[in-house]
Amino acid sequence: MGFKCGIVGLPNVGKSTLFNALTQTAAAQAANYPFCTIEPNVGDVAVPDVRLDSLAAIANSAQIIPTRITFVDIAGIVRGASKGEGLGNQFLANIREVDAIAHVVRCFEDGDITHVEGRIDPIADIETIETELMLADLDSLEKRVTALEKKARGGDKEAKELLDMVQRCLVLLQDGKPARLVERKAEEEKTFLMLNLLTAKPVLYVCNVEEASAHDGNAFSAKVFARAAEEGAKAVVVSAQIESEIAVMEPADQKDYLDAVGLEEPGLNRVIRAGYELLELLTYFTVGPKEARAWTITKGTKAPAAAGVIHTDFEKGFIRAETVAYPDYIAFKGESGARDAGKFRLEGKEYVVADGDVLHFRFAN
Q1: Over the stretch 108-124, which tens digit does the pLDDT of each residue have?
Q2: I need a surface site. Which of 78, 119, 171, 254 has the fewest CB within 10 A?
Q3: What is the pTM of this model?
């Protein structure tokens, strides 16, 4: 199960620097954290999770395998991208293929690095890219209306539902608002996703600040956080300069460097975790002497589908899930202790897997 987060941003905002730091960090961890570069602009990175190390220590696991998320460094955008300016067509096509957008925003001043718009204004930068995405969505939806209206008049139920959603999204987009803000019921989500709109993607704003503001951010990033709160998005602060330096250091040196700049962990860890949360993902674990492994599923996934992430046969032949919650596994020093304490559970097909569950699946061949 792959989840992709596309990194976007105007030129000279630090987008590629952050992506390179992500991939360099992952490559340096390759001994413990599987990493691969699928294409020059695509990298799989481990999702940091201290719980996995704790589980492995209790089970004396020989190998630790974290869950992963894919980041895609998407071509830069300029005004007019929705009409094909610059690398606009490639940019828009690549965004359609990702599950979420990590929007890198310049929140630092530096006379040596020219801003494409000639000024430092993160909100205006956000609006430049958002406008291009909205224009592309408007064009896409307007082209569908006539055909959908004809099918709807002919009694096509799906066409009627799609047409209603298209019209509601058009109202928002024409008002300068992204489609993801459209009010919809849970049962309408499938119809909404069928439209495959660029502005339907959940957004994480990555505020690239100068080194001195890497911990708490600055006045520029504060504006971005306020905007994110207004639209139900997420935001994090990082310093691309710091991250690029950390990425090429030995682990022991990283700790000293982070201490020196007043950080508890690399900012990229926050970016990875925030991307994971943005996609509404959660982690469950399988633990044993051979390996301790994290698995990614979406929130609300039931036990059989969670088993299917490991292997399709597990889902097809699912019998039950043997379950221990992470806090109980730690508190009682493993599965045996949790069983003795009455914290070991047998769950059936309707069980909704919780974040941190330690699971063993029983299935029929």
Answers
A1: 987 666 566 667 899 99
A2: 119
A3: 0.82
